[in-house]
Amino acid sequence: MKVEDFDMFCSLLKQRSGLVLTRDKAYLLESRLMPVARRNNMADLDALALAVRTKRDEKLLEQITEAMTTNETSFMRDGRPFDLFKTVVLPKMLEARAAKRHIRIWSAASSTGQEAYSLAMLMEEEKHKLAGWRIEIVGTDLSAEVVERARLGVYTQFEVQRGLPVQMLVKYFTQQGDKWAISPDLKRNINFRVFNLLGDLSVLGQFDIVFCRNVLIYFDQPTKAQVLAGIARQMPKDGYLFLGGAETVLGITEKFRPVESQRGLYYPA
Amino acid sequence: MEQKTCLVVDDSRVVRKVARKILEELGFACSEAEDGLKAMESCANSMPDAILLDWNMPVMSGIEFLRRLRKMTHGTTPKVVFCTTENDIAHIQEALAAGADEYIMKPFDNDIIQTKFMQVGLL
Ligand SMILES: C[S@@+](CC[C@H](N)C(=O)[O-])C[C@H]1O[C@@H](n2cnc3c(N)ncnc32)[C@H](O)[C@@H]1O
């Protein structure tokens, strides 16, 4: 790929999704964008680059942006954050919201929905404590394709075996051929929508608990800081933020501080 | 810490070999049995910490073995993880009712074995 094309794609991606690519990732750009070129009847990436330069075809730009997202996820990913949610965060919230009896949770880069559904299952396991409560889970992602899959809630045998205890599988899924579909009851309190974290977060309203995991790693420092500041504005002071295993607020923003001895968990400052 | 032991029960030599390799990489000392009856004998000799168990085998099936095992030990040890091509809910429920701790639907990979063994507290 020509250097000026690589640079052009990079600045497009940076602007549209926050994704930062270094030169050594040129292969990634090529392998992910070739299918986009083909789908649009273009012979190669030169043609795709030319099309981007000469036409402002929003659909094409969307396809390029989505093709470059990494949607890797799994049920109960990394285990520990979900233990923390159940043993520390949820009990605290039940106390703090006892008057309102309403909790809003945000899965801020929900990909194909496993994170949001994991939370829904954990809440369901605690439902004896939640009688009369309104629990809302909102899942958002930049990619329309993964949002559609999340809404569908149908997973392969491989996907349901990564992280999901089998007791939960039989309890919350039904079998559809060789796929597994999440129960309609669990879906009822979850709303998935397309949303860009670089946009105005206030349209989503306030959240008591935010999972923003494994997405900030793709951004540069200023973008991380901007998104974290935006999230902080959507949270009450007694809210909780979960970040991914390789992510932190330290050295990036003062809007959050770590919860002592609970890795990956933060309070608004 | 003492090395944990796992008995791999499957009538396919290839599956036993693949599973054994993964489990050894996870730190288990492994032994093998090719059917439920051989597995019974092995357990009577020395009870492992974990059992990876196929369903369909000649002589004695995995589910039959599990029922006998749970009668013999009257408890929740060893941990038993089914690993089988039976991938319908009815089989899974039958396995859980008989005292299985986890259930892997073949084909499996390192990742699945690792997370399942983690979930039942073996790792
Ligand atoms: C690796 S997945 C993380 C999924 C899940 N949170 C987890 O930890 O398993 C990252 C997701 O972030 C989404 N994403 C990337 N940039 C985004 C942006 N600017 N706004 C919203 N979502 C974005 C991608 O589409 C992708 O689905």
Describe the structure.
- The complex is a heterodimer of chains A (269) and B (123).
- Chain A is of the alpha/beta class.
- Chain A has helices at residues 3-17, 26-39, 45-54, 58-67, 80-96, 114-125, 144-152, 157-161, 166-172, 184-187, 221-233; strands spanning 102-107, 134-141, 154-156, 173-176, 179-182, 190-194, 209-212, 240-243, 256-258, 265-268.
- In chain A, strand 9 (256-258) and strand 10 form a beta hairpin.
- The termini of chain A are far apart.
- Chain B has 123 residues and is an alpha/beta fold.
- Chain B has a single domain, classed as 3-Layer(aba) Sandwich (Rossmann fold).
- Chain B contains five helices and five strands, in the order E-H-E-H-E-H-E-H-E-H.
- A five-stranded parallel beta sheet of chain B has the order 2-1-3-4-5, sandwiched between helices.
- Bound molecules: S-adenosylmethionine.
- S-adenosylmethionine binds at residues 17-18, 69-73, 77, 109, 111, 115, 141-143, 146, 196-198, 213-215, 244 of chain A.
- Residues 17-18, 69-73, 77, 109, 111, 115, 141-143, 146, 196-198, 213-215, 244 of chain A line the site of S-adenosylmethionine (SAM).
